[in-house]
Amino acid sequence: MKRKFHPFLLALLMPILLIACGGRSEASLPANGAAQTIENKGSDTIVNLALAWAEAYAKVQSRVYISVTGGGSGTGIAAMINGTVDIANASRKMKPEEVEKARANGIEPVEHVIAGDAIAVVVHPSNPVDGLSISQLSAIFTGQITNWRAVGGQDRPIVTLSRESNSGTHVYFLERVVREGIKEDNRLFSPDTLLMPSSEGISNEVRQNPNAIGYDGLGYVTSDQKVLCVIDQPGDACVMPTVETVQDGTYPITRPLFMYTAGEPTDDIREYLDWILGPEGQVLVRELGFVPLGHQDS
Hints:
- This protein is α/β, with parallel strands linked by helices.
- Helix content is 35%, strand content 21%.
- Strands 1, 2, 3, 4, 5, 6, 7, 8, 9 and 10 form a ten-stranded mixed β-sheet that branches.
- The longest helix is centred in the N-terminal third of the chain and has 17 residues.
């Protein structure tokens, strides 16, 4: 026997059904109803900046809705390759095998540099160590150095923290620090390294563990963590990560941040990227602790 629902009851139930199915209510879309949605997914390093851009852009172009989610650089790139997002956020370059897979799917990835970043090395505020060299950091994260006393600290075991392997920050730190920028090097993080699912996870562990050492994008460093200066080569100065030391090239652990599109962007996606790269978008880069593109600074 079929049950019939009164139209008024159906009207009451519809918002609940939308929420249960993961739908987005019309209240989150532009009032004129002619919304263009841009799906933006990927790097957890970039996600807070991407959310700030999306919120600010909604005030500039009300008919365009920017949907932002994280999940890691690898996740965003895979979604772009599969055609399920318009823009992939990445804190690393696409790997050759990812480019090949995209082309096999008929997609030619286009890279857009949208900001700069420094990877800050962070420890508990009580740690007396003020700075480390790239070679010392490599020895720590590969498990060759396991006690803080070996690098001028207290007689305590070192607890190493890293992002998970789908993170672009993990990949960059592995190549630049763990492997000291040496191509064909096969050193890996120590198996004792604790893998954290997010930048916030590393921050939280560092705050509560006096033996911990981790790394994070500069925009995620908070005042209750101690940031170490880093020495690149023997005889070099120990340099703190700042916007200025990234721009002048003196801080050794720096990287560009990327957005990738499937082919050259057009129409609304092109306009959004142009806005990100322009003065309004780059102001937010600095406000969130990242490094604006050089030509935007006076």
